[in-house]
Amino acid sequence: MTAQADESGCGRCFDVGEVELLRTPGVPLPADLVRRVAQKDPFHWDDQPAIIRRVLPQLVVLLAEGEAESDLMARGLAAAGWSHWPQEQAGAVAGFLEARWTQTLRMTSPPIPACAVFESCVTASSSVTPWLARWEAETGSAARRHLADSLGWWREELVSGNSPFTWWWGTGTSEQAAWHEVKQWLAGQTRARDAGRVKG
Question: How many Å apart are CA 123 and CA 74, to the nearest integer?
């Protein structure tokens, strides 16, 4: 996978040598270049999906290692429309996101907070539904702890009603609908937890 041969990129953000690297298949890219490519406004590129495909093998490594601004990097994936790629490619991205989220939920101390991983998965897919479903299915102590922590992580957003999905790729209406779904789910989980304590 490589960028188009005539990809020019943004000359203010990427120099000629960096763009040439992106055009060259099979050559490892500096981590900083991968990071900047994923984080930059998608409209920096003539063919942004091709650019994301080029950096994807190294991008998933950065995300798995706990990149601090993973939601911003995930915006690049969303803008590339990965879910509409050929089945094998789309399946690989979906599989990575699912594995990353599941692993995070099962870790007591993940590289970055579980809520940050959740936000990046949501950003990459423009959906909260599959990630909430996985969270609910995970019944271990680590997943429960991450659930409790989420109430503090999103404290301001839960009070204000403002979405925490800073880099949502879609309409404001769809973003607010997604955040409403999360709030409803959190409320349901809290009620179930409190009911369990009463019975106990």
Answer: 6
- Rounded Cα distance, 31 and 46, in Å: 22
* CA distance linking residue 71 with residue 167, whole number of Å: 7
**pLDDT means over runs of 10, the chain (200 residues):** 59 82 90 93 88 94 92 95 96 98 97 97 98 96 95 94 96 97 94 63
Separation CA 36–CA 52 (nearest Å):
11
Closest alpha carbon to 12 in 41, 48, 32: 41
Report pTM: 0.92
Angle between helices 87-106 and 141-153 (to 10 degrees): 90
Q: Count of alpha carbons within 13 Å of 7, Cβ hemisphere only?
A: 27
DSSP 152: H
How large is the C-alpha radius of gyration of the chain?
Answer: 18
pLDDT of residue 194: 64
**What was the pLDDT predicted at 172?**
96
How many CB atoms sit inside 10 A of residue 67's CB? 23
For 105, the token pair is 């939920």
